[in-house]
Amino acid sequence: MSDLINKQIILKSRPVGEPKESDFALVETPTPEPGEGEILSRTIYLSLDPYMRGRISGGQSYAAPVELGSVIVGGTVSQVIKSNHPQFQVGDFVLNSNGWQTYAVSKGETLRKLDPTQAPLSYSLGVLGMPGLTAYAALLDIGQPKEGETVVVSAASGAVGAVVGQIAKIKGARVVGIVGSDDKRDYIVKELGFDVGINRKTQELDSALKEAAPNGIDVYYDNTAGVILETVLPQINLGARIPLVGLISEYNATSTPPGPNLMPLLIKRALIKGFLVSDYQHRFNDFLHDITGWLQSGQLKYKEDVVVGLENAPGAFIGLLRGDNFGKLIVKVNDDPTAA
Amino acid sequence: MSDLINKQIILKSRPVGEPKESDFALVETPTPEPGEGEILSRTIYLSLDPYMRGRISGGQSYAAPVELGSVIVGGTVSQVIKSNHPQFQVGDFVLNSNGWQTYAVSKGETLRKLDPTQAPLSYSLGVLGMPGLTAYAALLDIGQPKEGETVVVSAASGAVGAVVGQIAKIKGARVVGIVGSDDKRDYIVKELGFDVGINRKTQELDSALKEAAPNGIDVYYDNTAGVILETVLPQINLGARIPLVGLISEYNATSTPPGPNLMPLLIKRALIKGFLVSDYQHRFNDFLHDITGWLQSGQLKYKEDVVVGLENAPGAFIGLLRGDNFGKLIVKVNDDPTAA
């Protein structure tokens, strides 16, 4: 053990709803020595990010939960103070995941060396790091904003949202940001160049969005889900794209929100896509070719539920919505001269 | 006018909740004469489909609503009885949209001629028509089932669902169908070859799905939304695909269901896709190149909210979830020797 005292913040109890200070505890422990291929580093900057709420709640997520009594996880920038790894020298600055503590041992392979002459060290935890890549990749690869389209982003002054809006502007979109204070609204409009900022705490979101996005919404970059997503959905345009990146509105929830809980969509990087058959007329010939072949080979079976007489259409339709029909519901209005 | 009597079913009142017989009225009117380029046809088969519920409710949808007093829309197979169009002869069978009536005039350009020797005429309203194409294109182009994956489909014995499940079997997937009666469950398993059928009215859906899809759900072909979608979501696999094709559970709803209403996703053929930054490490170099350039050119601005001292991390984190921070939240744990 080193004679350095390591200060750590550990998870004392799993928060219920909004975390309390008493869910955390500051402890002091001896600082461990690095083993072969490892380094010991002093934490300079610790990143705090909303995803940590999921890690300390212990529920299903995309990564293992933080155990009770353990140091809370987190990305860090630190300086090497002892090294048993040939690629790192004492004094080097590295990006690693020391978590909420002042010292930590880490394996050399998991580190990225930082050059403080290129950018402030802390930027690697934000605009040049995970939040920046989150903004960049989800906006450009899923949102795919085009020139002249309208992009809406929630939590718009945050680490991710501020970058999303600015990249969308660079790509030529009209950009609307949703924030929680007038200061933040002023900031995203006056400093960052968003076209419109909406303070969801003082403005009526639905009408403010309609005014801010008069041509509808093409991309909604969703950091929050919840009521903002509900309000955005009726205003989306044909073929809109919604990268679901965060569910800040639900992180502190003590019960499952009503309606479909979208958390699994995020965790599983799944997609829901609306479908209307009229968009797929170009597939009609493939369809007819394949289906006819499968019908003829017996791989595909087909059942009809035929109701006789136009006057019976209303009753049959009412039953259809109840699921009373069995097979494709057809009304035989007049005799079929070709039927056997 | 012809001397034929045309029987029509018109919309008498907009249904509230489940439609009633009294929302419809059967009327008799003279049959119109076809004009230049038009044909007059006698309806043989009328297709009844759930989408019609949206058309008679008069709300926002992807097509114009049926007006009060007007004939209800619908796809039909009919026989030409008068023709002023060179491509159609009296006696020809055509696919058109006569709606809920016994005769109609239609423009030749909107018709497809049917060959009754190839398949029963009524099939063009089902497996060889719009419902079949809906099953085929949404499953194959959005759902993209792969061999060995698990596909779940709701309303599984219906015109669309039955075709979906069988195509998924042809593509080598494990197929689970959700239906509303034991008869239908037996049918999809014993007649259509689904691996498992679930009667949602008598079985507990959550546990039945877990048993039927022990490896999780890769594709959920959603004809219903509502509680079935809610139950499916927690059981989806990484990268799952959910074509949202119908919202049968909501068509009769008199109030907006709780939680995000997914109707706009369907109407606008939009997509929601979950995002996790760890999937996008391959974009890191592009990201760093672009972001660094934008920072240097001043097109991208970046603000940090720095809290000093590890002991202040819990309070700062609690504030982050409330939105108290302004800019990327960073804890300065030790002095930064590179900072000015």
From TrEMBL, chains A, B:
It comes from Nostoc linckia FACHB-391. Residues 20-331 form the Enoyl reductase (ER) domain. Coiled coil: none annotated. Keywords: Oxidoreductase. This is NADP-dependent oxidoreductase. Gene3D superfamilies: Medium-chain alcohol dehydrogenases, catalytic domain, NAD(P)-binding Rossmann-like Domain. The keyword Oxidoreductase applies. It comes from the Bacteria. InterPro entries: ADH-like_C, ADH_N_2, ER, GroES-like_sf, MDR_fam, NAD(P)-bd_dom_sf. The keyword Oxidoreductase applies. It holds the Pfam family ADH_N_2. Transmembrane segments: none annotated. Signal peptide: none annotated. SUPFAM superfamilies: GroES-like, NAD(P)-binding Rossmann-fold domains.
